[in-house]
Design goal:
alpha+beta; eight-stranded mixed sheet
């Protein structure tokens, strides 16, 4: 398949039709933004329950909140999440070593970050997609693309097919869309793994707090509501095939041994192995074009990074806003539009991916004199600028 070819304008006298593959954070956000501009959207999601219960917690930095405000879910996030402007670094025994306010990457009118239960964020986005009038097809995947100069014929796993003016692959880190259009870039492990689990919020925990050192590289937690926190433990990556899912809670309790303060209370909450998630830190960045003809990548399908800056969701949401702005702001959808999308996003995304990986690598290498504050300040300051 050719890397690109000219795209004619959307059909005269009618709305173009866009297919969004993937109903996660970025795919849902793009769907809402396009529908608000009157563009017809089909959304297909492989999960039959629309990932409604997936994940434990998420930290939404200010630049993510800036996009989510445009999507129309900020009020719900503020109501159901937990806004905090502070971050503290603790010693393994729970003693506060340093506390500071964070840069407000979304502007002074938004919190520096809001912690939230991931299923609740997903439900808010699902509600917005439903209200937008998009056609949603769950338990469905795209199985084949046939492109020409005027559109993409897409075949689906349910045996149906339809023609679209544009296809957006927002189907995550292990994107099938990416491989189907011949982009061979794949995520690369960084050597770290992370255990995550929800827990009741201990009294007095009102900010994100992290411990560097002890049994893990990082032991941290972030309030996700008035009643809950999202906890995480970062260690050297292990062979996931050797881990027994039924022992996940035991593993997380064992790893948290030796951490004091509220970790005594948190540890007692790790009882349900199904509530514990283990994944690796990956680095992923498609440096070349993010599109082939009329099929373009969005979010984790194009890039992903360790959560050391908590910027994964923010970068994906910014993709959605930039692509929506371009699609709704130009009269002609052509190859230049998709090239401009890539050109606008790549430098900013590369900065975040490289900085996130650098922080992780310093931890892996045990570098004690690394300029962590400087790197964080430079990166977050740059993110205050609009994408």
């Amino acid at each position: 398949m050719a890397d690109s070819f000219p795209l004619p304008p959307p059909p005269a006298g009618g709305d173009p039709i866009v297919l969004v593959i993937g109903g996660g954070t970025s795919g849902n956000a793009l769907t809402v933004l396009l529908r608000r501009a009157g563009i017809a959207v089909d959304l297909v999601e492989a999960s039959p329950d629309w990932k409604a219960s997936a994940g434990s917690g998420i930290t939404l930095q200010g630049n993510a909140l800036r996009v989510l405000r445009e999507v129309g879910v900020l009020e719900g996030i503020e109501k159901d999440g937990y806004a905090a402007d502070g971050l503290a670094v603790l010693a393994p025994d729970g003693t506060v070593l340093h506390a500071h306010e964070e840069l407000r990457t979304g502007g002074d009118d938004l919190p520096s970050h809001i912690g939230m239960q991931r299923p609740r964020l997903q439900q808010l986005l699902i509600d917005q997609v439903r209200a937008s009038g998009a056609d949603v097809h769950l338990g469905t995947t795209a199985t084949a693309f046939q492109q020409d100069g005027e559109g993409v014929d897409v075949t689906f796993s349910n045996g149906t097919s339809r023609r679209y003016d544009l296809v957006v692959g927002a189907d995550g880190l292990h994107s099938a869309t990416r491989s189907m259009i011949g982009i061979t870039d794949e995520p690369q492990p960084t050597g770290m793994g992370i255990w995550r689990a929800p827990a009741p919020r201990p009294a007095g925990v009102r900010r994100t707090e992290m411990i560097y050192g002890g049994r893990c590289f990082i032991a941290g937690y972030c309030p996700t509501s008035q009643d809950t926190v999202y906890t995480y433990l970062v260690e050297p990556a292990r062979d996931r095939a050797s881990l027994d899912p039924d022992a996940y809670a035991d593993e997380m309790r064992a790893l948290s041994e030796g951490y004091g303060g509220v970790w005594e209370e948190l540890r007692a909450a790790f009882t349900d192995p199904k509530a514990v998630n283990y994944t690796w830190f990956d680095r992923h960045l498609v440096e070349g074009p993010w599109h082939r003809g009329r099929v373009v990548l969005l979010g984790d399908a194009a890039h992903a990074c360790p959560p050391t800056f908590a910027q994964g969701a923010a970068m994906s949401l910014e993709d959605a806003q930039v692509l929506a702005d371009l699609l709704t702001g130009r009269d002609t959808w052509d190859d230049q539009l998709l090239t401009d999308y890539h050109a606008r996003r790549l430098p900013r995304v590369r900065m975040v991916v490289d900085a996130s990986v650098q922080l992780a690598q310093w931890l892996l290498d045990g570098v004690r004199d690394a300029d962590v504050p400087g790197l964080m300040h430079r990166t977050l300051s740059a993110l205050k600028e609009l994408p």
